[in-house]
Amino acid sequence: MTTSTGTIKYKKTQNTNSSSTFNGKWYGRAVQDRSVSFDEFITHMAEHNSPYSRGVISGVLTDMLQCLQELVLDGKSVRLGELGLVSIGLKTTPADTADAFTPSTNIKSVRLNIRNTKTWSNAELKKLCKFSELSEYSTAESASA
After folding, report:
1. Which pTM was predicted?
2. Alpha-helical regions (H) of the chain
């Protein structure tokens, strides 16, 4: 696997939670300047000296996503090579006793977890990044941040 490098865009945001001890402090938050669709991703892969056509790549990835969903919904974790381990996680609220815990009351949401590997660890990814502040801030973004 070849190693890629990139420039991560960020914007500065201020904590405005008055109950936080960090109220008024400034943080950097990663922002994306564009989303790549599934079809664009397939084209990107096909154009990287791949011997596989867009159709083959699309079929394999589509089948992979269906199988991945089937396996994680069956309670399995799936290791996707160096990308990481994919599994299901829950956001729950506490119950006073084990008997009082019920899925309908205490499970608030289900989420997809990806735990990265050594190659994709946070420390390794940081080594591959340069940082660039987002040059334009819109007032709508600032208000919702």
Report:
1. 0.69
2. 38-46, 54-73, 103-106, 122-127, 139-144
By the 8 A CB rule, do 57 and 50 touch? yes
**Count of Cβ atoms closer than 10 Å to residue 1 Cβ:** 6
The distance in angstroms from the start CA to the end CA of the chain is 36
CA-to-CA dists, residue 115 to 6, 51, 65, 68, 88, angstroms: 21, 30, 17, 15, 11
Give the position of tokens 């867009």.
54
Mean pLDDT of 115-136: 83
Residues 75-97, mean pLDDT to the nearest whole number: 93
Instruction: Find, among 5, 24, 6, 4, the residue nearest to 15 by Cα.
Output: 24
Query: Taking the alpha carbons of 31, 33, 38, 43 in that order, is the dihedral positive or negative?
Result: negative
- Is 8:131 a contact under the CB 8 Å cutoff? yes
